[in-house]
Amino acid sequence: MYVHAYYRTYGERPVSKMASSSTMGFGSSPFLIVSLICVLTLELASAKERTKTVEFDVKPGGVVHTFTKKIKKYECSFTYASQGGTNEQWQMSVGLSEDESHFSCSVWRPQGKSYLFFTQFKAEIKGAKIEYARAYSQAGVGGHSDVALKEEEYTVGDHTVTQKDGKFHAELSKLTIIGQTRHDEL
Protein backbone atom coordinates (compact mmCIF):
# COMPACT_ATOMS: atom_id res chain seq x y z
CA MET A 1 0.00 0.00 0.00
CA TYR A 2 1.31 3.44 -0.88
CA VAL A 3 0.61 6.73 0.86
CA HIS A 4 0.96 9.94 -1.10
CA ALA A 5 2.39 12.89 0.82
CA TYR A 6 2.73 16.41 -0.46
CA TYR A 7 5.71 18.55 0.49
CA ARG A 8 6.17 22.26 -0.08
CA THR A 9 9.73 22.87 -1.07
CA TYR A 10 10.11 23.89 -4.67
CA GLY A 11 6.40 23.56 -5.38
CA GLU A 12 3.97 20.74 -4.70
CA ARG A 13 5.01 17.34 -5.91
CA PRO A 14 3.81 13.94 -4.77
CA VAL A 15 6.26 11.72 -2.96
CA SER A 16 5.38 8.07 -2.55
CA LYS A 17 6.34 6.41 0.68
CA MET A 18 5.76 2.78 1.56
CA ALA A 19 3.45 2.52 4.57
CA SER A 20 4.80 0.29 7.29
CA SER A 21 2.66 -2.19 9.19
CA SER A 22 3.03 -0.03 12.29
CA THR A 23 1.44 2.95 10.53
CA MET A 24 -1.47 0.88 9.21
CA GLY A 25 -2.36 -0.89 12.47
CA PHE A 26 -1.69 -4.56 11.73
CA GLY A 27 -0.38 -4.98 8.19
CA SER A 28 -0.72 -8.19 6.26
CA SER A 29 0.64 -10.63 8.82
CA PRO A 30 0.31 -14.22 7.57
CA PHE A 31 -0.32 -15.35 11.16
CA LEU A 32 -3.23 -12.93 11.50
CA ILE A 33 -4.78 -14.05 8.21
CA VAL A 34 -4.45 -17.75 9.08
CA SER A 35 -5.89 -17.11 12.56
CA LEU A 36 -8.87 -15.26 11.10
CA ILE A 37 -9.55 -18.07 8.63
CA CYS A 38 -9.38 -20.66 11.44
CA VAL A 39 -11.82 -18.71 13.63
CA LEU A 40 -14.30 -18.26 10.76
CA THR A 41 -14.04 -21.95 9.81
CA LEU A 42 -14.70 -23.04 13.41
CA GLU A 43 -17.72 -20.71 13.65
CA LEU A 44 -19.13 -22.06 10.38
CA ALA A 45 -18.54 -25.68 11.48
CA SER A 46 -20.15 -24.94 14.83
CA ALA A 47 -23.21 -23.42 13.10
CA LYS A 48 -23.48 -26.48 10.83
CA GLU A 49 -23.46 -28.73 13.90
CA ARG A 50 -26.38 -26.70 15.34
CA THR A 51 -28.70 -27.03 12.33
CA LYS A 52 -29.54 -29.84 9.94
CA THR A 53 -32.06 -29.93 7.09
CA VAL A 54 -32.80 -33.16 5.25
CA GLU A 55 -35.29 -34.25 2.61
CA PHE A 56 -37.53 -37.29 2.93
CA ASP A 57 -40.53 -38.75 1.12
CA VAL A 58 -43.99 -38.71 2.65
CA LYS A 59 -45.58 -41.90 1.31
CA PRO A 60 -49.32 -42.45 0.94
CA GLY A 61 -51.00 -45.83 1.31
CA GLY A 62 -52.38 -45.68 4.84
CA VAL A 63 -49.27 -47.28 6.38
CA VAL A 64 -47.72 -45.60 9.43
CA HIS A 65 -44.23 -44.19 8.70
CA THR A 66 -41.73 -42.41 10.95
CA PHE A 67 -38.88 -40.10 9.99
CA THR A 68 -36.34 -39.03 12.66
CA LYS A 69 -33.45 -36.56 12.82
CA LYS A 70 -31.09 -35.86 15.70
CA ILE A 71 -28.58 -33.21 16.83
CA LYS A 72 -26.38 -34.22 19.74
CA LYS A 73 -28.76 -35.75 22.33
CA TYR A 74 -31.87 -33.99 20.96
CA GLU A 75 -34.21 -35.76 18.57
CA CYS A 76 -37.28 -35.02 16.47
CA SER A 77 -39.58 -37.70 15.02
CA PHE A 78 -42.46 -37.25 12.59
CA THR A 79 -44.90 -40.17 12.48
CA TYR A 80 -47.80 -40.17 10.03
CA ALA A 81 -50.19 -42.13 7.85
CA SER A 82 -51.60 -40.61 4.66
CA GLN A 83 -53.78 -41.50 1.65
CA GLY A 84 -54.06 -40.44 -1.98
CA GLY A 85 -51.68 -39.35 -4.69
CA THR A 86 -48.03 -40.29 -4.89
CA ASN A 87 -44.96 -39.70 -2.74
CA GLU A 88 -44.32 -36.06 -1.83
CA GLN A 89 -40.91 -34.63 -1.05
CA TRP A 90 -40.81 -33.02 2.40
CA GLN A 91 -38.06 -31.58 4.57
CA MET A 92 -37.17 -31.74 8.25
CA SER A 93 -34.98 -29.14 9.93
CA VAL A 94 -33.67 -29.51 13.44
CA GLY A 95 -31.76 -26.79 15.24
CA LEU A 96 -30.05 -26.14 18.52
CA SER A 97 -29.55 -22.62 19.88
CA GLU A 98 -25.96 -21.47 20.42
CA ASP A 99 -26.29 -21.80 24.21
CA GLU A 100 -28.13 -25.13 23.74
CA SER A 101 -31.13 -23.86 25.74
CA HIS A 102 -33.62 -24.43 22.89
CA PHE A 103 -34.16 -27.19 20.34
CA SER A 104 -36.36 -26.67 17.29
CA CYS A 105 -37.93 -28.98 14.76
CA SER A 106 -39.78 -28.07 11.58
CA VAL A 107 -41.35 -30.50 9.13
CA TRP A 108 -42.84 -29.13 5.92
CA ARG A 109 -43.57 -29.54 2.25
CA PRO A 110 -41.37 -27.04 0.35
CA GLN A 111 -43.99 -26.70 -2.42
CA GLY A 112 -46.39 -25.24 0.14
CA LYS A 113 -49.55 -27.35 0.04
CA SER A 114 -49.73 -31.10 0.44
CA TYR A 115 -52.29 -32.96 -1.65
CA LEU A 116 -52.21 -36.01 0.60
CA PHE A 117 -54.89 -36.73 3.18
CA PHE A 118 -53.30 -37.37 6.57
CA THR A 119 -55.24 -39.87 8.63
CA GLN A 120 -52.88 -39.29 11.56
CA PHE A 121 -49.74 -37.40 12.55
CA LYS A 122 -47.52 -37.00 15.56
CA ALA A 123 -44.35 -34.95 15.96
CA GLU A 124 -42.25 -35.74 19.01
CA ILE A 125 -39.12 -34.16 20.46
CA LYS A 126 -36.79 -35.87 22.90
CA GLY A 127 -34.47 -33.99 25.25
CA ALA A 128 -36.63 -30.86 25.38
CA LYS A 129 -40.02 -29.71 26.64
CA ILE A 130 -42.29 -27.98 24.11
CA GLU A 131 -42.69 -24.23 24.63
CA TYR A 132 -44.26 -23.47 21.25
CA ALA A 133 -45.89 -25.60 18.58
CA ARG A 134 -47.98 -24.85 15.53
CA ALA A 135 -49.42 -27.00 12.74
CA TYR A 136 -50.35 -25.67 9.29
CA SER A 137 -52.55 -26.80 6.42
CA GLN A 138 -50.42 -24.75 4.01
CA ALA A 139 -46.76 -23.70 4.21
CA GLY A 140 -46.00 -20.17 3.07
CA VAL A 141 -44.09 -20.22 -0.24
CA GLY A 142 -44.18 -18.18 -3.43
CA GLY A 143 -45.73 -15.13 -1.83
CA HIS A 144 -48.39 -17.12 0.04
CA SER A 145 -48.62 -17.09 3.81
CA ASP A 146 -48.70 -20.02 6.20
CA VAL A 147 -52.25 -21.16 6.95
CA ALA A 148 -52.49 -22.46 10.52
CA LEU A 149 -54.70 -25.34 11.52
CA LYS A 150 -57.41 -24.49 14.02
CA GLU A 151 -56.18 -25.18 17.54
CA GLU A 152 -59.05 -27.63 18.01
CA GLU A 153 -57.57 -29.88 15.26
CA TYR A 154 -54.46 -30.87 17.21
CA THR A 155 -53.12 -31.14 20.73
CA VAL A 156 -49.78 -30.05 22.16
CA GLY A 157 -48.23 -31.97 25.04
CA ASP A 158 -44.90 -31.63 26.83
CA HIS A 159 -43.09 -33.56 24.08
CA THR A 160 -45.63 -34.23 21.30
CA VAL A 161 -47.94 -32.55 18.81
CA THR A 162 -50.74 -34.89 17.66
CA GLN A 163 -53.92 -34.68 15.59
CA LYS A 164 -57.22 -34.78 17.48
CA ASP A 165 -59.34 -37.65 16.24
CA GLY A 166 -62.65 -36.43 14.87
CA LYS A 167 -61.46 -32.79 14.75
CA PHE A 168 -58.47 -32.95 12.37
CA HIS A 169 -59.50 -32.26 8.73
CA ALA A 170 -56.69 -34.39 7.18
CA GLU A 171 -54.75 -31.37 5.83
CA LEU A 172 -51.14 -30.93 6.91
CA SER A 173 -48.27 -29.15 5.18
CA LYS A 174 -46.06 -27.91 8.02
CA LEU A 175 -45.30 -28.42 11.72
CA THR A 176 -43.07 -26.21 13.87
CA ILE A 177 -41.91 -27.01 17.41
CA ILE A 178 -39.60 -25.12 19.77
CA GLY A 179 -38.62 -26.77 23.03
CA GLN A 180 -36.64 -25.72 26.08
CA THR A 181 -33.77 -28.13 26.71
CA ARG A 182 -33.07 -27.34 30.33
CA HIS A 183 -34.68 -25.65 33.30
CA ASP A 184 -32.87 -22.54 34.54
CA GLU A 185 -33.29 -21.73 38.23
CA LEU A 186 -34.31 -18.19 39.12
UniProtKB/TrEMBL annotation:
**Looking at the Swiss-Prot or TrEMBL record, what is one Pfam family this protein matches?**
UPF0556
Q: What is the lineage of its organism?
A: Eukaryota, Metazoa, Chordata, Craniata, Vertebrata
Recorded superkingdom: Eukaryota
Protein name per the record: Myeloid-derived growth factor
- Organism the protein comes from: Conger conger
Q: Write out the GO cellular component annotations.
A: extracellular space
GO terms classed as biological process: positive regulation of angiogenesis; positive regulation of endothelial cell proliferation
